[in-house]
Amino acid sequence: MQDAALELIGYQVNFDHLHLGLFLFNHLACGTTIGLEAGLFSDLYEGPVYKQRQTGTDRCPEYCLHERQLKPCPAECECRYVREIIQTVRQWPKIGKD
Fold it and tell me: Which ranges of 27-95 does DSSP label H, i.e. alpha helix?
């Protein structure tokens, strides 16, 4: 995650098993895209994990339905912790970045 040529470009949700959703990274130097399971990053989050999903309700901004949408989610939703991990990954310090 420290590689300045590595960029988080998306998230493919798996509503049945959130830990199996994919974080999508591009390696800018070679143009390769790789998907890594969200569960591999779960130790980066220490906040609350809500029990119910809000998808399809008026409380849900539907960010998880749009692969390239990486904003944090304001809803008290089961998926929110993954959105918080996305923010941590996006803000990870890069080595070699100007």
Answer: 80-90
State the total domains in the chain.
1
Q: How far is it, in rounded angstroms, from Cα 5 to Cα 72?
A: 23
Q: Are 32 and 61 in contact (CB under 8 A)?
A: no
> Whole domain around residue 32: which residue ranges?
6-90
The answer to whether residues 27 and 35 touch, using CB atoms and an 8 Å cutoff, is: no
Q: Which pLDDT tens digit goes with each residue over 53-65?
A: 999 999 999 999 9
Predicted structure pTM score:
0.90
Neighbours of 88 (CB within 10 A): 12
| 81 in a structural domain | yes
